[in-house]
Model the fold of this input.
Amino acid sequence: MSFVHDFDEVVDRRGTDSKKYSQYPADVLPMWIADSDFKAPKPVVDALVERMQQGVYGYTPISSRLRAAAAKWQTERFGWNVDESWVEFVPGVISGVISAVRALSHPGDNIVIQTPCYPPFTDLSDHNGRHLLRNALVLKDGRYEIDFEDFEEKAKDPRTKLFILCNPQNPTGRVFTREELVRLGEICLKHHVIILADEIHQDMVYQGHTHIPFASISKEFEQNTIAFMNPSKTFNLPGFRTAAFISANPVLKSLVHDVVVNNKAIGENICGTLAFCTAYEQCGYYADQIAAYVEKNRDLVEESLKDFDKIDVIHAEGTYLLWLDCRKTGMSQKELDDFFVNTVKLGLNSGKSFGPEGEGFLRINVACPRSTVEEAMKRIVTAFNA
Ligand SMILES: Cc1ncc(COP(=O)(O)O)c(C=O)c1O
Done:
């Protein structure tokens, strides 16, 4: 099935229990948390409406349709031949990553992450007694690169059990190359470190870049990886709390699944499963169109701020999240955060929430109609020129 989705449509989300739209006063344009302002694909909306009209919403069994839909998506879109039996439901990627951390490491063990990083990665180790090792990405000529020597130092510590890879990377927008992934994976194999690959942003990759599922690189990597996926970012379904993890390694898979089951985090949500399956089965067209649309939003931000000496836009290779280097403003993070909310009237994510490496940065979410991005750029330029 194929439609042309209208990404220019402005949907009024105020008063709809939206977290994004409840955080700031009405005159602040919210461009922070990672959900989009786009309607979900028409086939998903139609399937949900039809199901809701039945009027009976009882318990559901574990869905084999969900396993098949996830496997098909990975195979057809990314060339990773996933068998349905490798897929399990989890209520969210972070919930799944936490289960994996509990299943595959012990309190006091190390987990490597690459920073700046999505905040729940740090919370999950703090709250579970794991020790976090921060392999900081290095900003070189406007692009974040991996410090492999530092990564290996951290990986070879005998207490290091896991590496949480985030690719495409939130918040830097890096889409790691095959060469980079191979080098990371070889180091992990050498030092017996298991990879948790959070690939939730896999569909949002821009021209000139390719998403390579980490586990697809080789049979050895596949056996050493748990991958996480959720249609939530691409199709704007995060409120349904329905995701999946994939592992070709039956031992790793069942260890993680046991923790999910023991936490009784297994009851699928009828709407979530239906949305997940319909999106992955029928909405490839939407994934293509949203990536092309948001890429133009990224270009618009870069173009609008290119002569602006106070903010450097880190060129995103993927994700709908742009990382703004605002250190030339000379403001402290607090001043920057306050200035954006109170003067610019934009609600963005504070760089410091992504770790100390994010000090002086802001993250802006451009998964919204072009008119919203235009308005945001107008607000930035006007406030800084005042
Ligand atoms: C890298 C990354 N992982 C996970 C999530 C959240 O996923 P979930 O809602 O499935 O836990 C996000 C949301 O912003 C994200 O950016």
Remarks:
- The mean pLDDT is 96.
- The longest strand covers residues 160-166.
- The chain has 14 helices and 15 strands.
- The domain at 19-40+284-385 is CATH 3.90.1150.10 (Aspartate Aminotransferase, domain 1).
